C-alpha cells in the first residue's frame, strides 16, 4: 500500500504491507516524518491509499459504510474532542442507550473517579464556560467515551512529551483497560508500550525498515535499536 499527499512530490508511505491479527497490538515507531500518523490515518480512512488497500477482517475500508467504520475504529489522541456540554451528553454521544450506571462504570475504568466529588456530577459542564478540567482529565473523559463506544480497532497516538508521574500512571491504567481485547495500533514513543507489543513496525521515510518484537529487533542492532525511546 502506498500513499501520497495531494501536491506532494513523493510518497508519504511506499510499499507498506502490515497485517495486524484481530486482538493483537502493533506499535509504530520511527523518526519524525517517517509516516506513522499517515499510516494510522489510513486505517481510520481520513485518507485513502494512492495504491493498494486497507482492510479490516478482509473488507476494504472503502466498502464499509462510514458510520460502521466509525463504530469499528476508535482514535485516541492527545487532542481530545469534548464538546461544550455536560459530561453525560459527551458520553451519550458514544452510547445513546447507556444508563448512568454504565457511564459511571466507564468513567471509573478511565480513572476519572474524582468526578463523583463534583457538585453537579454527570451534569457538570465541560469547557471554557464550564468546569475547567485539566488536559489529562479531559483526555480520560474522552477515553471513557471510547470505552462506551467499544470500537474493535483502536488507534492510540501516544503523548510525546513527558507527563507528570501521577497523570501518566492514571492515563496508563485507563489505556490498559481500554485496549483489553481490542486490536490496537499505537503510535508509540515509550519503551513500555513498544516492549509489550505483539508486533513492532519501524518506519523510515515512508517504508517499513524493520518488523518484529522488541527482543529480536534489539538483537538485530538495526534501526529499532538506534531509536531513542523514552523510558
Ligand atoms: N497534510 C499533509 N500534506 C502533505 N504532506 C504531509 C501532510 N501530513 C504529513 N505530510 C508529510 O508526510 C510525511 C509523513 O508524515 P507523518 O505525519 O505521517 O509522520 P510521523 O511519523 O507521524 O511524524 P511525527 O513523529 O513527527 O508525528 C512527512 O514527510 C510529512 O511532511
Ligand atoms: Mg505523527
Automatic annotation (TrEMBL):
InterPro entries cross-referenced by the UniProt entry: AAA+_ATPase (IPR003593), ABC_transporter-like_ATP-bd (IPR003439), ABC_transporter-like_CS (IPR017871), P-loop_NTPase (IPR027417), Type_1_exporter (IPR039421)
Record has Transmembrane helix as a keyword: yes
Record's keyword terms, sorted: ATP-binding, Cell inner membrane, Cell membrane, Membrane, Nucleotide-binding, Transmembrane, Transmembrane helix, Transport
Pfam families, alphabetized: ABC_tran (PF00005)
Keyword 4Fe-4S: no
One MF term in the entry's GO annotations: ATP hydrolysis activity
All copies of domain ABC transporter, residue ranges: 3-230
PROSITE patterns reported for this sequence: ABC_TRANSPORTER_1, ABC_TRANSPORTER_2
SMART domains membership: AAA
Name this polypeptide is given: ABC-type multidrug transport system fused ATPase/permease subunit
Native organism: Janibacter alkaliphilus
